[in-house]
Amino acid sequence: MEKPLNTLVYKRTHRGDPDESGVFGIHDCMGRVRRWAFEAAVGVGGKKPDRGHEDIANKINWIGIRPFKKEAGGKGPRVEFEHFLLLEEDGPHIRDLAPKLYRHMFEDQHVRAVLSRSLPREMQDEIRGILRLAGENNHTRKSRRSPEERFPQRRRC
Would you kindly state where each structural domain of the chain is located, as residue ranges? Predict the structure, then answer.
């Protein structure tokens, strides 16, 4: 059995961070959480996103695997990923792919962010299934842009 990646799963309130280029923290969102030790990340739309972003609610919005962190000022490092898949409002509903994780985050505990290593095995298995979406979509993002292009002025969250 494959060793599970310690995965950050967190609720989002809006699109735009990460942006299309895959930079998590481009607008300094989830600052301290970006410092946590994780090997993958999954952004899930919260139940009540910001006005104009309601279409991301309860959906898997993005997946990043194998992070590279770079200090850039602000609340936390900016993070890029070896593998990055941006789904936004087109992502599957988390309840469909990970019903136990959904219950944990949205009904039982109402947590904003969690690391998979702290969860029971069955939830870790569900997260592994979510991470497979990035591999199935065969989307490997390798940036050719300069740091200035990758890390433009940020919007405060």
Answer: 7-143
pLDDT at 150 over 50: no
Q: What is the pLDDT of residues 59-91, one digit of tens each?
A: 999 999 999 999 888 899 999 999 999 999 999
Question: What are the start-end ranges of the H helices in the chain?
Answer: 94-97, 99-102, 121-136, 147-150
**Amino acid at the residue 45:** G
Q: Is the CB of residue 89 less than 8 Å from the CB of residue 56?
A: yes
Tokens standing for residue 38:
């994780």
142 SS3 class? coil
Number of H helices, E strands in the chain: 4, 5
**For residues 105 and 123, is the Cβ–Cβ distance under 8 A?**
no
Measured over the CA atoms of residue 145, residue 83, residue 66 and residue 152, the dihedral's sign is: positive
Q: Which of 103, 101, 85, 92 is nearest to 139 (CA)?
A: 85
Cβ(74)–Cβ(8) under 8 Å? no
Residue indicated by tokens 């006005």 = 51
